[in-house]
Amino acid sequence: MMDFPVLKNDYILKAAKGEDVDVVPVWVMRQAGRYLPEFREERAKTDFFTMCQTPDLSCKVTLQPIDRYPLDAAIIFSDILVIPQALNMVVEMKPGEGPVFPSPLKEPSDMSRLDSPKYVSEKLQYVFDAITLTRTKLEGRVPLIGFAGAPWTIMAYMIEGKGSKTMSNSKRWLYAHPEDSHKLLDIISEATIDYLVGQVKAGAQMLQVFESHAEHLNAALFKEFCIPYLKRICDRVKESASWLGFGSIPMIIFPKGGHYALKEISSLNYDVIGIDWTVDPVKARELVGPNKTLQGNLDPCALYGSKESIDAAVKDMMAKFGKKRYIANLGHGMYPDMDPENLGAFIDAVHKYSKT
Ligand SMILES: Cc1c2[nH]c(c1CCC(=O)O)Cc1[nH]c(c(CCC(=O)O)c1C)Cc1[nH]c(c(CCC(=O)O)c1C)Cc1[nH]c(c(C)c1CCC(=O)O)C2
């Protein structure tokens, strides 16, 4: 096990475990990103995936929001789509368009193009190196979060080849090729387990699994095509981390648009459930019960409002969540055209209402 600087702020780890904290911890999704001028300056010089593959650059932009704001966690700068890349698919980041796969999986026979998940950890060593470097450079200021996409979300990208309004290509697989869908989800899950365990070994102190495409499914599809894989990932990663001497690694599941599945998800071993802004925090608490930490859920677009309106929205949000078993966050990521000052107003408001 590596030797890292002593952790000075463990609020988020405590909140994840349900321990009492005197302030509500806060971080935001996409906190390292284009809304920050210092990120855009780096990004202007280097292609997106080259940045991900260069530990010095990944570390540098991961630390940018930590240097600027009193956040309670850092999240490693990378992308969920490094898993399809490690399975032998080409993914490019097109300006103004987002990620694009030039040759997506069209039919189940295309799965023969995929490499074995056995080699994923070797191929993603650059992420582990970025994590180790960043954990060192953080000097114990805050914990470092690692992450991966959930299997359905990754499968949908591999089949659609880009963002999609309907996900009808990938959903066609679920209805027309259920067995092959399970085969693909199994491959992605095995890759993801090794990848997340590798992140823990490299220094990640908490993990988030992004089920960003939950909104396209329903309770029945989620139960068949998501739950078993989310369960396998959580149980196997926790078991390996514990066996390797890292104790109980806190894990967050973020099912974006998955309001219909919250109760089912609460039966899994994730410590934290992230909710998007469409879910009422009081209803979410009823659904998941008292033994899970909730994370979220301000509408990111609230950051387009005035500082006063952000303050009022945070006050309302925090009254609904309460201060126990709660991690403050947005209901999804920052957008590139947001004012960095307004993120500061969000974080200040969380601190203000977490004290009173
Ligand atoms: C679906 C998804 C992806 N990537 C990710 C998800 C899950 C979260 C979600 O639901 O948004 C996860 C992700 N992507 C990125 C991070 C870094 C850590 C952080 O949150 O700060 C994380 C955790 C950096 C990024 N990932 C991306 C950027 C912007 C790309 C750029 O700089 O050109 C960043 C900073 C690109 C990306 N990557 C992806 C998309 C759809 C896009 C385009 C979005 C856009 O253009 O704003 C796939």
Automatic annotation (TrEMBL):
Report the top EC class in one word: lyase
- UniProt xrefs under PROSITE patterns: UROD_1, UROD_2
Annotated protein name in UniProt: Uroporphyrinogen decarboxylase
Tell me the GO BP annotations in alphabetical order.
protoporphyrinogen IX biosynthetic process
Going by the entry's taxonomy, the superkingdom of the source organism is recorded as Eukaryota
User: EC number(s) in its UniProt entry?
Assistant: 4.1.1.37
Family matches, as CDD domains: URO-D
The cross-references to HAMAP family, in alphabetical order and at most eight, read: URO_D
Uroporphyrinogen decarboxylase (URO-D) domain location: 25-34, 145-161
Q: Which NCBIfam families match?
A: hemE
Q: Name one GO cellular component term.
A: cytosol
Name the chemical reaction catalysed here.
uroporphyrinogen III + 4 H(+) = coproporphyrinogen III + 4 CO2
Segments traversing the membrane: none
Cellular location(s) = Cytoplasm
MF (Gene Ontology): uroporphyrinogen decarboxylase activity
Name the lineage.
Eukaryota, Metazoa, Ecdysozoa, Arthropoda, Crustacea
Q: What UniProt keywords are attached to this protein's entry?
A: Cytoplasm, Decarboxylase, Heme biosynthesis, Lyase, Porphyrin biosynthesis
Q: Which Pfam families match?
A: URO-D
**Pathway of this protein?**
Porphyrin-containing compound metabolism; protoporphyrin-IX biosynthesis; coproporphyrinogen-III from 5-aminolevulinate: step 4/4
Q: What is its main location?
A: cytoplasm
What is stated as this protein's family in its record? Belongs to the uroporphyrinogen decarboxylase family.
Query: Its encoding gene is what?
Result: UROD
